What does this fold into?
Amino acid sequence: MSHVAYQERGDVAVEADYVVVGTGAGGAAAAVVLARSGASVIMVEAGPWREPHDYAHSTYGAMRDMMDDWGSTFTMGRALWPVVQARLVGGTTVINSAICVRTPLDIFEEWQRDHGVGGPGFAERIWRFQDQLEDELCVAETAPESMGRSNQLALKGDAAAGFDGHVIKRYAKGCLGSGQCLQGCRSMRKQSTNLNYVPEVLRRGGQLLSCAPADRIVFEGTRAVGVSGRFIHPQTRSKGARFTARARKGVFIAASVTHSPVLLRRSGLTHAAVGAGFRAHPGTGVFGVYDEPVDQNFGVTQGWASTRFREDGGLKLETLSIPMEMAISRLAGGGRAFMERIVGYRHLAMWVHALRARSVGSVRAGFGGKPIVRYSFDEYDMARFRAGMVRVAELHFAAGATAVLPGIQGLPYSLGPGELDVIANGPLDPRRYVAILSHLFGGCMMGADVTRSVCDARGRVHGRQGLYVADASLMPNNIGINPQHTIMALAMLVAEDALAER
Ligand SMILES: Cc1cc2nc3c(=O)[nH]c(=O)nc-3n(C[C@H](O)[C@H](O)[C@H](O)COP(=O)(O)OP(=O)(O)OC[C@H]3O[C@@H](n4cnc5c(N)ncnc54)[C@H](O)[C@@H]3O)c2cc1C
Ligand code: SF4
It folds into this structure.
């Protein structure tokens, strides 16, 4: 059988040329390159297979069915900020906004200058894979009819404020603008990897073990020869049968920034660099209040962005429509006043910024193997984070908002156009801000210095044979752009180079 889901008893043992752990952005991209070469591939995925018609409508349902540990991973530091990742076939591509951004040249220059990876021809190879991905995953600019009012207002504000923004390109085919990307696209317009590369690997004779978190990498001497673990029931979370997936030629780890380093450590790779270099784009939103209804839940989830402040300020500004129940969690108060604020939901537009933070953290295994992310913001990052909120508020006022709701603890609930200095002089304590970390980097960083890195530029784990990393954990810096396109192209490059070794 090509897909083996949860098994209560009866050990499962399978074998192929390659085993790929994780089916998200990196894992699925690596697996499809391997399968297209004619190699046999087993994909081992911690989460379940979910059919799009079965995706939850609500945020609560998405957290229950799709998120890693119900979305309960938080940064351990000065502030407890959620670290959001998915756990199902397709990984975080199922719950993301499908924004596609090509890797800029300065990233390759930084990788080479600071980490000794890359060099002549490297950027061109990544860009070639990105051409291929754009073609295969139907990347296109959001069509005007899918934009919705929130994105149109951002375009208007941008024209007035001069933020040099643009309509976002996404991996979506005929997006209907239903604003449901974060709960999974039930109409299958978003090109998450569970709809394309994972089924293609299966069609090419590959196998999938789902509900199957790999617990250990199996070694013979220093050569990786497979992975093992126990099935986990997708609802009860109870443990089932054992599984072993053996690899004749290589094992690819693509279990995400939080899980890949933990899996390596559990498997005996206790080198200090494993789990080091955790970086992120902490982001937060500011609501704009408009006289006319915005109805942010109609229109594409994210349709407008500006990178004008990427170099100077490390900021990316974007629209982000969020479901009503998530919006309500940002509306403070109680009783009648709170009910009135909820009624006002139709008049709110949520726009966000994501910061290219310089702060660095780490990932380690906690109780029961759950990743512990230690991460705190320094004052420099906090000041830029706060400045990003001012930019978002400026954009709202330029678009005609009558007020903004900054959501900063201790500050007024609502601010008018002349009151932006209240945010600009706001607190520098991260605990007063609501933020999430959704773009993550590092943990198994690539680099030339074996004391500071886990892998080389071809994803090969130092000191081991047949073991590769092919996900966001490879990235040695914070790239300051939406990362999926870079992760997928990097994973394809790692897979292509592994095939060339044979
Ligand atoms: C809400 C949200 C919106 C986003 N929007 C965008 C966007 O619009 N554009 C963009 O470029 N980026 C976006 N991102 C980020 C992007 O989705 C991620 O950076 C990317 O998916 C990471 O790829 P990955 O392969 O490293 O990990 P993932 O895609 O998370 O895949 C990891 C996979 O490994 C599995 N796994 C974990 N542990 C194990 C184990 N032990 N054994 C087996 N399997 C395991 C997981 O279940 C998961 O399926 C968004 C992220 C979030 C959270
Ligand atoms: S906005 Fe709606 S239709 Fe478009 S990709 Fe997202 S969930 Fe799918």
Summary: The chain has a mean pLDDT of 96. The domain at 141-181+278-437 is CATH 3.30.410 (Cholesterol Oxidase; domain 2). The chain has two domains: 3-50+88-96+101-136+192-271+443-501, 141-181+278-437.
